[in-house]
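Archive maintenance. Older records in this collection stored only the sequence; we are now back-filling the structure field for every entry so that each record is complete. The fields below show one back-filled record exactly as it appears after the update. Entries are processed alphabetically, and Exodeoxyribonuclease-3 is next in the queue.

ARCHIVE ENTRY
Title: Exodeoxyribonuclease-3
Organism field: Pedobacter westerhofensis
Length field: 257
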Amino acid sequence: MKIATYNVNGVNGRLPVLLRWLEETTPDIVCLQELKAPEEKFPEQAILDAGYHAIWHGQKSWNGVAILSRSGDIKERRRGLPGDDEDLHSRYIEALVDGIVVGCLYLPNGNPAPGPKLEYKLRWFERLTAHAATLLTQDLPVVLTGDYNVMPTELDAYKPERWVDDALFRPEVRAAFHQLTDQGWTDALRKTHPGEVIYTFFDYFRNAYARNAGLRIDHFLLSPKLDGRLLAAGVDHNVRGWEKTSDHAPVWIELSE
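Back-filled structure field:
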């Protein structure tokens, strides 16, 4: 089974790129972030024509997450994290897909930092961590994947000294990520590529992609029930080089059945 995550940076504007990638790589389950489209503007028919069923949690101009499945076996479990009924951002959606609980997330950026946006990010992280702990008590395999907007270690940032004060790399943000993984989650990409420089995001500016000046901010966290099924993980680096593409590259894992 192949599961992928992709911050598309606008699902309608990047639709040709998304459809080409789906056709070329045929993942079984796909999590998308930054749809930047309200509920009614999600391109459901185009996704269906590509062979995928979908559920989505949209928002006009900002945020937005979706889960796609080739089997069509998607049972939505929740949209939005518990813990703050006033948080209307479309950043989390969760479903049971082919026997796996899939949590698709788009964690807040947090910049400029310090300030209210960083405080919101840390509160959101706390809610994610609390929900993740609850998921681990359930007798199901779980994957939490998406754009975490965190570089966990210096290995995950090109010239990390430039990011010291950024909300993607500040000590309290990295500590929040490690507090989450310390519950027993496996960082799939790092497990399969220990010590390797591997990036998932490349800025549109300063020729970042060509220089491999990137960040690793898109992650797969696997519950203990899935850790033993992990066969491989990687980044579709070449997709970042396509015309009119997202500034993120798709990330994927392969699991044994």
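Update note: The radius of gyration is 17 Å. Residues 53 and 72 are 5 Å apart (CA to CA).
Entry marked complete.
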